[in-house]
Amino acid sequence: MDATMRTVLLCVTVVLQLGLSLGPLFTEEYRSRPLATGAFAALACVPAVCSWWVLRQRPLPAAVTAGGTAVVLAAAFCATAAVDPGRRFQAPDWSFGLVQWHLLLLLLDRIRLLVAVLAAHLTASMGTFLVAGPPDRAAIGAACTVAFGAVSVQAAVIVISRLLRRRSREALAVADEHDRLELRVLTARQWEQHQRTLFAGQLGTTLPLLAGLADGALDPRDEDTRRRCALAATQLRRLFAENDETPDPLVHEMTACVDVAERRGVNVSFAVSGAPVTVPAQVRRRLTGPVATALSAARGRARVSVLRTGEAVRIAVVTDTDTDTDSGPRPEAVTTADGRVEVVSDHYGDFLRLEALWRR
Question: What domain of life does the native source organism fall in (predicted)?
């Protein structure tokens, strides 16, 4: 908004200086015409220099503002000195109203300084007018009329600029809040769609199991069927736990997996060490997925430990399970977008040792 106001002020200043002030400079009588001409040229340089930043919608540098203000005040003093004292606040004194537009152009974004400079310029102009000699009532009335008209216009410009700036900030705040709300809605929709996809994927592996049990194709007394049911229950419980608001989501999801195993009669020893660390949801799924598989295959005992450090998160599981003693170690590595999760499982007799590692 300040950039737009400055562009308008630049146009107004140029039009007033060339359209209203140039004529009196050559038609009126002056005590020192070269001094008046020099002041006019100095004032003309100010909008010419400011146009480099104003037309590019950029704020004026502090050096340009300070230097321009000094030039304007000096030019105003010279232009006033070139006018005959009896012609102050008349046609030859074209600089009085013009200078204030230059100050508005320079100090629009510094309202307090602008008001102070305008007041100082008005006081100095009225002071030189009164010191030059005792004016008559007509001269005082004319001077007050000119001063009141100029001050009213400048005050109106200041008030309008302040009002527009405030409205602009309010509009930007409303727009930002609208954007934040839209972002929240979009994030909620994406999260909901993501959750639906997860549940659909999990149910996609569970529904065939339920259908097999329902139509009698699978025997509930069969060990493999019971293991599949245990795995499905563990995965669903971990998926439900993923949506809970907890300070330590990883341990919460691990506790859900352990709870399902304990409900099946497995004696589980669960230990956690290290301070909680932030683990992305996708990485948590990669870490807890093999653990859920191992616990679903446990027969009577299991030991689960979670170790968290500043560099890595390690989950180790030892369970007793029916496995082929000659199968040997079977390492496996899984890569995710959030980091590398390494899963290694070793079979020793009737025991399965599994370790999942995520390096932060």
Answer: Bacteria
Token pair listed for 349? 């007799």
Question: Based on the domain organization, do 349 and 230 belong to the same domain?
Answer: yes
Task: Say if residue 232's pLDDT is above 80.
Answer: no
* Predicted pLDDT of residue 303: 93
Asked whether 307 and 313 are in contact (CB, 8 A), the reply is yes
User: How many domains does the structure of the chain reveal?
Assistant: 2
Rounded CA gap, 257 and 130, in Å?
94
**191 located within any domain:** no
3-class SS letters over 49-82 = HHHHHHCCCCCCCHHHHHHHHHHHHHHHHHHHHC
Same domain membership, residue 299 and residue 234: yes
Amino acid at 37: T
38 within some domain: yes
What's the rounded Cα separation, in Å, for the pair 23 and 48? 20
289 has pLDDT over 60: yes
Tokens 């993501």, residue? Answer: 194
Q: Comparing 108-122, 127-141, 326-340, which segment has the lowest mean pLDDT?
A: 326-340
Q: Which residues contact 313 (CB under 8 A, 6 or more apart)?
A: 250, 277, 279, 287, 306, 307, 357, 358, 360
Using only C-alpha atoms, what is the Rg of the chain? 41
129 part of a folded domain: yes
In the predicted structure, residue 274 carries a pLDDT above the cut 50: yes
Higher pLDDT, 247 or 212: 247
Q: Are residues 32 and 133 in the same domain?
A: yes
Domain final position from 149, 175, 201: 175
User: Which amino acid makes up residue 160?
Assistant: I
> For the segment 216-231, what is each residue's pLDDT rounded down to a tens digit?
777 777 777 777 777 7
Backbone angles phi, psi at 243, to 5 degrees: -90, -5
Furthest CA-CA distance within the chain: 121
Q: What is the pLDDT of residues 39-82, one digit of tens each?
A: 899 988 999 998 899 888 888 888 988 998 999 989 888 888 88
**Structural domain containing residue 265:** 219-359
CATH number assigned to the domain comprising residue 273: 3.30.565.10
